[in-house]
Amino acid sequence: MRKEELKFAQRVVRKGYIQGAQILSCIELVQVSNGHENWTLPDLLVQQGYLTAQQARDISEELVKERAETVSAISSGGQKIGSYELIAQIGEGGMGVVYKATHTGNGRVVALKILDPQLAKDQEFITRFLREARNVAKLKHHDNIVEGYDFGESNGKYYFAMEFVDGPSVLKLLK
């Protein structure tokens, strides 16, 4: 499932339009149909009667607006998380977004992984995220493993700073 659809699902449940079990069954339908039908999660929710077409459009517009505001804040510079100033978004995954950032104290360029704000409301996700950061920080230095530098929380945002490796993504290299 695409990250955008996951955020859409989280927003629909948070607004109380649909229960968790119902959204999971719709997500399964979308995943099973991939390749056979061109269903998107918003389309399926409307088709199943869980949302009106207007509600689906409104939620989609909210998410687009939030994303644009985030990109604008980062591109204008100055957005900080803890001791790090964000430079640019470089990746996105199931638990959050990764930015190229600079440590304001020592100038070190890092990859800064930030836990998705929706997931940061769930203590289990926070625990998993911080456990990942601790485990990476414990690894001995090796040329094939990125080094973990720092992790923590700043104004409700959980972050994990690690070595920044310039170049193409692993996915691009594999392709």
Topology record:
Blueprint: H1 3-14, H2 20-33, H3 41-47, H4 53-75, E1 80-81, E2 84-92, E3 96-103, E4 109-115, H5 123-138, E5 148-154, E6 157-163, H6 170-174
Antiparallel strand pairs: 1-2, 2-3, 3-4, 4-6, 5-6
SSE order in H/E notation? HHHHEEEEHEEH
The mean pLDDT is 82
Fraction in beta strands = 15-25%
Overall number of strands: 6
Percentage of residues assigned to helices: 40-55%
Q: Quickly count the helices.
A: 6
Task: Give the strand order of the largest sheet, numbering strands 1, 2, ... along the chain.
Answer: 1-2-3-4-6-5
Question: Would you identify the regions where 5 or more consecutive residues have pLDDT less than 50?
Answer: none
Largest sheet properties: 6 strands, antiparallel
Shape by Cα distribution? elongated
Task: Please characterize this protein's 3D structure.
The chain is α+β, with helices and mostly antiparallel strands and 175 residues long. It is built from 6 helices and 6 strands; from the N terminus they run ααααββββαββα. The protein has helices at 3-14, 20-33, 41-47, 53-75, 123-138, 170-174; strands spanning 80-81, 84-92, 96-103, 109-115, 148-154, 157-163. The protein has a 6-stranded antiparallel β-sheet with strand order 1-2-3-4-6-5. The mean pLDDT is 82.
Brief description of this entry?
With 175 residues, the protein is α+β, with helices and mostly antiparallel strands. The protein has helices spanning 3-14, 20-33, 41-47, 53-75, 123-138, 170-174; strands spanning 80-81, 84-92, 96-103, 109-115, 148-154, 157-163.
Keywords:
175 residues; six-stranded antiparallel β-sheet; 6 helices; elongated; alpha+beta
